[in-house]
């Protein structure tokens, strides 16, 4: 210390220490201001990110409800776009629409039926959808009306096995695929509508997650494994027909497909009884069409000989009586085409038509639609 005092006087050392205090406080204050600025920037970044996610989710929800319904329900949305395209291409031709299940989707060719591009008169849109039953047909009808599509004639497939099902709509319909307007339509057919609404709202809060498969299928389908891809649902012709992917199937494949169909339908038909929910949906659909002045034709798609053996006689009589009741009550036509393709080799599973058989059926079906049959109390053909 004495040596330091000799080189630097004590008063100079003390002065230098005092001079360093403000610099230290300045550095601490500057660091504090930098940390505060960084925290503020982080908060702003988080808020901007949240706002961006909110805006992106809002825009996706608006797109699904308006211009891109195919991102919400791929099968239905694709065919709605086809319907608008057909109306633009053939503005002078009346639009006919066929609502139905995968049997209609694969089995009804509007071109072969004589309602295609080269035909005169009406143009037919195949609006078949996999797994579609009476309640979903009723919902799809309302979707069409909301899109401004009111057909000149409505064809409605009746699938006898599903008339047995009295399950609530939430048990078999895909709630995340519902549009806002579907909720009011589907409500009478639900057991727990509050749970359905909560599930729907959660799906709309995170639409980029819940609809990720549809989005990737539409934009980069190769990124998805084949079982998850949905782009095959859009591979239809210009009129909505999506034929079975092969013209012929081998005996081994047919046996496997027939076994699956038997497992799905035979027991259901053995204990079949007419249920209220599907009947209510058909009554609502037919009454709405009657009020709008839209003629309706109910039809049953072809079934193979093997599939028809699974119907007990009492079921045959009950379905026949029910269809006759609808025909008389709502002045609609009923076309029973169950025996029109009476060969199991024309089906992969005895109830979905192969392409060549679908064209044969469609040609005859188109002729039946064009016939001038009486509309009031028209008796159905006994092809059971």
List the helices and strands and how they pair.
Layout: H1 2-7, H2 10-65, H3 74-89, E1 95-100, H4 102-107, E2 123-128, H5 134-146, E3 153-157, H6 180-186, H7 193-205, H8 207-210, H9 212-219, H10 251-270, H11 276-292, E4 296-300, H12 305-308, H13 313-330, E5 333-336, H14 355-370
Parallel strand pairs: 1-2, 1-3, 3-4, 4-5
Helix pairs in contact: 5-6, 5-11
Q: What descriptive keywords fit this protein?
A:
single chain, 384 residues, alpha/beta, Rossmann fold, five-stranded parallel sheet, 5 strands
Structure, explained:
By secondary structure, this protein is α/β, with parallel strands linked by helices. It folds into two domains: 15-67; 69-370, 3-Layer(aba) Sandwich (Rossmann fold). Helices cover 53% and strands 7% of the residues. The chain has 14 helices and five strands. Strands 2-1-3-4-5 form a five-stranded parallel β-sheet. It starts with a helix and ends in a 14-residue tail after the last helix.
């Amino acid at each position: 210390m004495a040596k330091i005092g000799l080189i630097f006087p004590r008063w100079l050392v003390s002065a230098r220490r005092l001079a360093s205090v403000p610099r230290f406080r300045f550095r601490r204050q500057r660091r504090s201001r930098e940390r505060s600025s960084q925290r503020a920037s982080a908060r702003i970044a988080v808020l901007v990110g949240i706002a961006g996610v909110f805006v992106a989710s809002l825009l996706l929800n608006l797109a699904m409800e308006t211009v891109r319904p195919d991102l919400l329900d791929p099968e239905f949305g694709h065919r709605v776009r086809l319907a608008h395209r057909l109306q633009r291409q053939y503005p002078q031709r009346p639009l006919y629409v066929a609502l139905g299940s995968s049997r209609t989707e694969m089995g009804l060719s509007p071109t072969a039926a004589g309602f295609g591009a080269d035909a005169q008169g009406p143009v037919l849109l195949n609006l078949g959808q996999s797994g579609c039953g009476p309640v979903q047909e009723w919902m799809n009808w309302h979707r069409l009306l909301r899109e401004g599509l009111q057909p000149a004639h409505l064809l409605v497939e009746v699938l006898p096995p599903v008339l047995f099902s009295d399950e609530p709509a939430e048990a078999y319909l895909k709630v995340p695929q519902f549009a806002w307007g579907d909720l009011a339509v589907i409500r009478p057919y639900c057991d727990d509508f509050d749970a359905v609404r909560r599930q729907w709202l959660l799906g709309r809060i995170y639409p980029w997650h819940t609809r990720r498969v549809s989005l990737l299928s539409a934009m980069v389908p190769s990124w998805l494994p084949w079982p998850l891809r949905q782009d095959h649902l859009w591979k239809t012709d210009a009129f909505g027909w999506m034929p079975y992917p092969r013209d012929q199937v081998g005996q081994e494949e047919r046996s496997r497909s027939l076994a699956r169909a038997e497992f799905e339908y035979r027991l259901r038909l053995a204990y079949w009884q007419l249920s209220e929910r599907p009947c209510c949906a058909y009554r609502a659909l037919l009454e709405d069409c009657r009020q709008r002045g839209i003629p309706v034709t109910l039809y049953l798609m072809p079934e193979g000989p093997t599939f028809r053996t699974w119907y007990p006689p009492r079921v045959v009589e009950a379905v026949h009586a029910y269809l006759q009741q609808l025909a008389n009550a709502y002045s609609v036509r009923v076309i029973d085409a169950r025996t029109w393709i009476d060969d199991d080799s024309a089906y992969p599973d005895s109830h979905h038509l192969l392409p060549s058989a679908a064209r044969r059926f469609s040609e005859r079906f188109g002729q039946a639609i064009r016939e001038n049959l009486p509309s009031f109390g028209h008796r159905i053909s006994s092809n059971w």
